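Protocol step 4 of 5: obtain the predicted structure for the target chain.
Materials: sequence only (see below). No template structures provided, no constraints applied. The aim of this step is simply to have a reference model before the mutagenesis design in step 5. Sequence pasted as it appears in the construct record:
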Amino acid sequence: MAAPPSLHDGELAVLGRHPLASNLVLVAEVRVPGADPVTVAYKPVEGERPLWDFPDGTLAAREVAASRIDELGGFGLVPETVWRDGPLGPGAVQRWIGEITTPCPTPVSVDPPGRVPEGNIVVLEGEDAEGAPLLLSHPDDPRLRSMAVLDAVLNNSDRKGGHVLEHDGRLWGIDHGVGLHEEPKLRTVLWGWAGDPIAEEDLTRLARLAAELDRPEVAAELMVLLTPCEVEALGARVEALLTCGTHPEPSGDWPSIPWPPL
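Step 4 output (structure tokens):
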């Protein structure tokens, strides 16, 4: 069997549209003669809806930057994502996780009291449309804990439960377009370790990322995708996490949970 093609290469053939995405997300294949096609999510800049707090036409670049930052730190939690042209113009192209017809499960859970999975950490109490109580929780899983650290680095403003996927024994985070802003905007369902010490392995990843961000060529690479102020703020967040050594806590100045949470 031939090796899969690079996401940069070959034809980007659109198969259809993702029906639940708020911005335009196209299911596509990267096709190179002689190689098996690779299924991807194609997010063209042309399909982005304007947001009041993010510059127009920047979400796809933030997706690519998030994947690169994940790689630089060695977190291994964001699928490969590249910037390339396609049938609807330039945008982000991300390797698809799982099967198109079968959504991957998420470890984040919403349950009535008494039915929360054993070992889960409850992060939010709420109620359903009829007023019955519900609890939002997630497992005490070191992979999720690493994702919480990565989200603090990325200043992720939209870590819903549905953006955390389990597939083939691995954990993946997707949809990072609403992140990497220079102003604090962390909004996530992964608050289970708020205020706790950051695990040693994640401190090692943060130190590795800090060293990479100090390299002029890495800063220049990221400034193609982000503004200089956003790259500077990224470095400051990494240094702050290394200095304090603890998971961030909700500030109270910004909604701490995305809506809907799943």
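Step 4 remarks: The longest strand covers residues 120-127. The chain has two domains: 11-104+140-244, 109-139.
Proceed to step 5.
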